[in-house]
Amino acid sequence: MDIKKQLQQAAADPVKLKEGVAGAHIVPLLMSYIHLTGDKKYLDEVRPYISGGWDYQQAIPLALQERIRADVVVAIERLAESGDAEHKELTLEELKAMVDVACGSDVPEKYLPIFYEETCFGGKDYRAVQWRKPVSSAETDKYPVVIAGAGFSGVVMGVRLKQAGIPFVIIEKNDAVGGTWYENTYPGIGVDTPCHFYSFSLMPNPDWPEYFSKGPQLNAYINRIVDEFGIRENIHFNQEIQTAEYNEERCRWQISAMDKAGKSLSYDAKIFISAVGILNRPSVPNFPGLDTFKGPKFHSARWDHSVDLKGKRVAMIGTGATGIQVGPAIVDEVSHLSIFQRSKHWVIRHPMYHEKVSEAVTWATKNIPYYMDWFRFQLFWAASDGFHPTLRMDPSWQDSAHSLNAENAKMREELIAYAKSELGDRTDLLEKVIPDYPPFGKRMLRDNNWYKMLSRPNVDLYAGDVDEIVEDGVIAGGKKYAADVIVLATGFKASRMLWPMDIKGRDGVSIRDRWGEDNPRAYLGITVPEFPNFFVLYGPNTNLAHGGSAFFHSECQVRYISSALREMVEQGIDELEVKSEPFENYNDKVDAEHKQLVWSHPGVTSWYKNKGGRVTMNSPWPLSEYRNFTANIDLGDYQQKSLVAS
Ligand code: NAP
């Protein structure tokens, strides 16, 4: 929004202005003030009191806060009245000086471009890939795109294609957008990345009700993106892509889909983009006797809301990111909850995990110019690369079975101390829950009152394998746990990436021929030799496990693909195929990096690794590095063909 208008809106109601400023987070408020007025007098004064991006990481004395807040009110009233406020570009030095204080760290310069991009600073869309010369619709029409999947990656890709005027359709198997956020409706579903950062940079949302909002809000937000950018008409719902075959002579993809009524449909596209993600095919383990169970049983991603859990004995198998949300959400209504934990998970507390966003903070994000920008970047910093260096194995580290290095060992101790404080005298539980492997080896779980729930009288935790399932319960460790309902929070078939689509590239080679069942590899996680004009969003080695937001990574990939399309359209390139050398080099680098990182630790089993022990899911890179790798396409990495020329 225009700064003048925003200021007038802020000053329009003096009571709300005072209340909003009084309750806003002090650090983004101060940064907005400096930004608006150029008055830097508080910068050095607050510096010693800020140790990180979250509000709980600042301890600015209240008297100092009062002075700042009073100055903010006066400045807003003055600027609203005079009408002479305008967006002011900051020099890199100014930005760095402010960012360092706001984040309580010496933020390396490589993160400064991310500030501009994440915040669309000053209303500029830094991630948009602009045409470099006039391009007619006759030219863009030669590059129709089919996208598989209308989760948020597919939607963000669609937005960018719409902006570029490139024709596209999104084929979506469900009757709605949202992907995994649409399909997962289990009780307690929510995001464990701060929402003001876990969102599309072009459409920040000031209305998140919680810092870590729930599934329905995420789903509503994705729907709002679709409508705001007018791409709903491009989405073909209730159709599932079955095959995609590349036609070399025409340099086009032939795509077949089937609708819910069993009708076959076909699409002809120059470019095929998969945005199906990796968390969309539920994994239901083949437990002996599963079919004999007489009561309702369902996977967490296919929650059966017709089943009333009130007063029922529920068995929940699986204690990953899903299980930890389901358990506490249902424990009050069930009569008994038996939890089956095959391996142990580290659980971390976040002080704001259950906190609602106050009216004052929402008001500030809407009305105070730059507040949302600073708040978002602070969260980016707090929730992203900070941990990354601590996930590297120190070759000289002695206790390598339990930790990786001094920092990681310290974290281990803190996590154990936290578990002890939560579990109190339940030392029996402590033994069951503390992992042997180093923190972050598997996905770090945010404590959702999990430990407190475990110690309740109506909860059992069995640590070990399930033996079998019988008609009225689950047998584990030779003991029967009676159950009326079974919940399978057992994760997804992530490693069989892109399955069940049958994708055939050059010479009819299938993606399964190249990737096998569980060894997906791609250049930058996006392109694969022998599969020209094919791009993958949220592909191999792009999952974020140290922090960050999946939106951030998607936007990096979407920008890269957009820059590839720009080259194709502007230069009349009909075929773009990554060369094997950059592809192999990149994957060698990924593997070499992973060998030193926590996810390869021999004591860890996880969905991040394939059967051969290779980490196929996670990105080994800090966000800033992946951002730089993908900021623009290097055509030297690609073979190109133009039909006219050939
Ligand atoms: P998951 O992390 O793969 O966890 C599956 C759970 O089921 C694990 O405890 C696993 O045990 C267990 N399991 C699987 N097969 C089993 C078997 N045969 N016998 C006994 N136990 C078995 O799946 P998820 O919890 O659905 O989470 C998947 C991913 O979705 C997460 O890592 C995250 O990326 C995303 N997610 C995010 C959020 C969020 O943002 N809050 C919430 C939910 C999910 P093992 O550990 O021994 O394999």
What does the model show?
- With 646 residues, this protein is of the alpha/beta class.
- It has 21 helices and 21 strands.
- The protein is globular.
- The model has no long low-confidence stretch (mean pLDDT 97).
- Bound molecules: NADP nicotinamide-adenine-dinucleotide phosphate.
- NADP nicotinamide-adenine-dinucleotide phosphate binds at residues 190-192, 279, 285, 317-323, 325, 342-343, 443, 466, 489-492, 607.
Topology readout:
Elements: H1 3-12, H2 14-23, H3 26-37, H4 43-46, H5 62-82, H6 92-103, H7 112-119, H8 137-140, E1 145-148, H9 152-164, E2 168-171, H10 180-183, H11 215-228, E3 235-236, E4 239-247, E5 252-259, E6 264-269, E7 271-274, E8 297-299, E9 313-317, H12 323-330, E10 336-341, E11 347-348, H13 359-367, H14 371-382, H15 406-423, H16 427-433, E12 445-446, H17 450-454, E13 459-463, E14 468-470, E15 473-476, E16 479-482, E17 485-488, E18 502-504, H18 511-515, E19 534-536, H19 550-571, E20 575-578, H20 580-595, H21 623-630, E21 638-641
Helix pairs in contact: 1-5, 2-5, 2-13, 3-5, 3-14, 7-14, 9-19, 19-21
The chain binds NADP nicotinamide-adenine-dinucleotide phosphate.
